[in-house]
Amino acid sequence: MKECLGMLLAGGEGKRLGPLTSENAKPAVPFGGKYRIIDFTLSNCANSSIPTLGVLTQYSPIMLNRHIGTGKPWDMDRRDGGVTTLSPAIGKHGGDWYSGTADAIYQNIHFIDQYNPKYVLVISGDHIYQMNYQSILRQHKETAADATISVIEVPWDEASRFGILNTEDGLRIYEFDEKPAEPKNNLASMGIYMFTWSTLRKYLIEDAENKNSSHDFGKDIIPAMLEDNKPLFGYQFDGYWKDVGTIRSYWEATMDLLDENSGSPISVAREDMSKQIYTNEANLPPHFIGTSGTVINSLINSGCFIYGHILNSVIFQKVLVKKNAYINESILHPGVCVGEDVHLERVIVMENTEIADGVRIHALEEEEPIVINQENLSEYVAVREEIV
Amino acid sequence: MERMMGLINLEHEHHVFNELTYFRNNASLPFAGRYRLIDFALSNMTNSGIEEVAVFVRNKYRSLLDHLGTGDSWDLDRRHGGLFILPPDWNDPTDRSLGDLSFFHNNRDYFYRGKANHVLVSGSQFIANTDYKDAFKRHLIHDADVTVIYTDVDTIGPEHQAYYRVETDQDGWVTQMTNDHRNPNVFTGVYIIKKELLLDIVDYCIAYNYDNLFMNGIKERLQELKVYSYRFEGYHAFINTTESYYRENMKLLQEQNFLRLFQKPFIRTKVSSNPPVKYQAQAVVNNSIIANGCIINGDVENSILFRGVEVSEHSQIRNSIIMQRCKIEEDVYLENVILDKDVHVKSGQRIIGTKEKPYIVAKRQVV
């Protein structure tokens, strides 16, 4: 028996990330110079002693499956438990795609039952934050709750963009408000749920039988539990938390990494051994900064050769930046090659893109950062030249 | 099928790096920003298609064991074969073996059990990025008993003194191995030998109370054995003195050398979970090799920084090697210096060595 089992939802497409997720699930999108987005939640599990984990995949899962592998980087290559990737499958009674977050868990009830856990942690693989899930479990036990939902205070004027939890004293939840026009509270759900398994199991089965349900935790399961007056509590989190669901927020969260005072995970991990971030490491040589290279306020990973100028940028592994290239506020994914005299500003360059000498691409400050890959590069360069 | 198994024999490597080898053996000496010397021999073996490697190591091996682990970084965590670290431990009262013969004698099982019928033997001090597939092919074509791998060095230095020089006839058969310091054909310490013959030589050496398998069993019996030579061409280094250690590190700061040593397939080493390097607002970095986990806010030129080094503002580092997790406070000046792991240099210090004799600070010192 396991006390607490983790279920990590990693099937989302992440449509709003545009080309970044055209062939790749959102949790597998590269982030932070050497990681993928899902590494942050996987590392949280590793650092919270939650070594038994189901990862639910659906959209474009190849990269994700390969990245997670046996779970070794997160110490999840265990004989007992460890990590299991759970893709939709057919069985004796047929099968179907996961039609919602709750349905994904419902379809894997048998997986959870084999471990007979007392509690189930439901998290998603598309947020950047560091949390010790043992604290939410502790509060869940103390309050004898059926569900504990992690919440974060958001500015009042932004509250209507979030799923808001209306609470009484002691953070007992009486109402869930999805994107309220007139918010009554500013505590937003972070999509992190701790459930008592026996209760959740019952609600999942009931929900699956309800033809009108959208099979979603926020829209269906939580409201149903509230309806029955079950004890649901908020768990207040006050660290760094960022949804990287859009190109702009992906870029902003990356820029946060360069600001040591933002509390974002990489600078925290440097100071605190219990908050390390683990990933499937490439075994590459250290990077080489040539005599003509300069680097200021940036992150650079191994296997790079830098002969140009890098400012306020994040550079993944195996990137080559040639002489007199100038890169500002940009993100270069693994294997990118930047030619001589190239200027990039507020640009995200996707894996293995080769940018020819002299190309200039700038996104203006009010514009969304530009995402470049080998396919759209030529059309992009052409369009820009016409404008000039 | 003809196959090779690997053996990294550290028994006759002397620990001559002073401060740097007080607490570790040569094989685990850090090199080139994130490697240990043994990574090169190990990677070259696995890149040659070898699936089982034994390491003969007698002492100061704590850091080596920690580094090698299960061998998974080199894909040597195998159900069959894999990595065997064989320290000397035996209780046979009739055992008369001496020197490295005691390793061979007491670990015969390693050779018996392996499916391979040839053994590739190497030390840790010859550094290259290569595979020995071609050498093995020639070894087989010529049906050699032993094939010794040598290289033609441009400039003979003190680091080559410990190695035999190879003399051959026109067809490449070895006629003599000498200490002739003018001969640029330096034996790399790497050789391929038929497994059955290796085990016979072990018996022979023990029977005659010899203590050095290669010297007594092969080099002194060149007339009886079919010893072929294979010339290695490519970027390489011999590292067995502090001077050669420093010079060979510094040589990698010339880009073409770095590229020749670090081309695909890459040398593999133990992975860690360090974040990418953070360059801060006042960072000035020029012609340097920087490993992950560093935080740089000072001025670094012609230097090699290992993982997790911190350089504070207004500090200058020139022609230096700074090992893992060193912390350099503000207004420090370092030139021609080697800092071993975990050294903490306090604010305002100036440490200057010479190119010929770099100033070495031992592990975990506060200066």
TrEMBL record, chain A:
CDD domains: ADP_Glucose_PP, LbH_G1P_AT_C
EC code: 2.7.7.27
The keyword Transmembrane appears for this protein: no
Entry-linked Gene3D superfamilies: Hexapeptide repeat proteins, Spore Coat Polysaccharide Biosynthesis Protein SpsA, Chain A
Domain Nucleotidyl transferase as annotated: residue spans: 6-259
Site-annotated residues for Could play a key role in the communication between the regulatory and the substrate sites: 58, 97
Keywords: ATP-binding, Carbohydrate metabolism, Glycogen biosynthesis, Glycogen metabolism, Nucleotide-binding, Nucleotidyltransferase, Transferase
InterPro entries linked to this entry: ADP-Glc_PPase, ADP_Glu_pyroP_CS, GlgC_bac, GlmU/GlgC-like_hexapep, NTP_transferase_dom, Nucleotide-diphossugar_trans, Trimer_LpxA-like_sf
PROSITE patterns reported for this sequence: ADP_GLC_PYROPHOSPH_1, ADP_GLC_PYROPHOSPH_2
Domain Glucose-1-phosphate adenylyltransferase/Bifunctional protein GlmU-like C-terminal hexapeptide: 290-361
HAMAP family per UniProt: GlgC
Task of the protein: Involved in the biosynthesis of ADP-glucose, a building block required for the elongation reactions to produce glycogen. Catalyzes the reaction between ATP and alpha-D-glucose 1-phosphate (G1P) to produce pyrophosphate and ADP-Glc.
Name of the molecule in the record: Glucose-1-phosphate adenylyltransferase
Source organism (scientific name): Oceanobacillus luteolus
Gene name, Swiss-Prot/TrEMBL: glgC
TrEMBL record, chain B:
Presence of keyword Nucleotidyltransferase: yes
Keyword Cell wall biogenesis/degradation annotated: no
Keyword list, A-Z: Glycogen biosynthesis, Nucleotidyltransferase, Transferase
InterPro entries xrefs: ADP-Glc_PPase (IPR011831), GlgDAde_trans (IPR011832), GlmU/GlgC-like_hexapep (IPR056818), NTP_transferase_dom (IPR005835), Nucleotide-diphossugar_trans (IPR029044), Trimer_LpxA-like_sf (IPR011004)
GO terms for MF: glucose-1-phosphate adenylyltransferase activity
Enzyme Commission identifier(s): 2.7.7.27
All residue ranges annotated as the Glucose-1-phosphate adenylyltransferase/Bifunctional protein GlmU-like C-terminal hexapeptide domain in the record: 281-351
Domain Nucleotidyl transferase residue range list: 20-254
Residues annotated as signal peptide: none
A Pfam family assignment: Hexapep_GlmU
Top EC class of this enzyme: transferase
NCBIfam families for the chain: glgD
Record-stated family: Belongs to the bacterial/plant glucose-1-phosphate adenylyltransferase family.
PANTHER family recorded: GLUCOSE-1-PHOSPHATE ADENYLYLTRANSFERASE-RELATED (PTHR43523), GLYCOGEN BIOSYNTHESIS PROTEIN GLGD (PTHR43523:SF6)
Protein name: Glucose-1-phosphate adenylyltransferase subunit GlgD
Lineage, broadest ranks: Bacteria, Bacillati, Bacillota, Bacilli, Bacillales
Designated gene of the protein: glgD
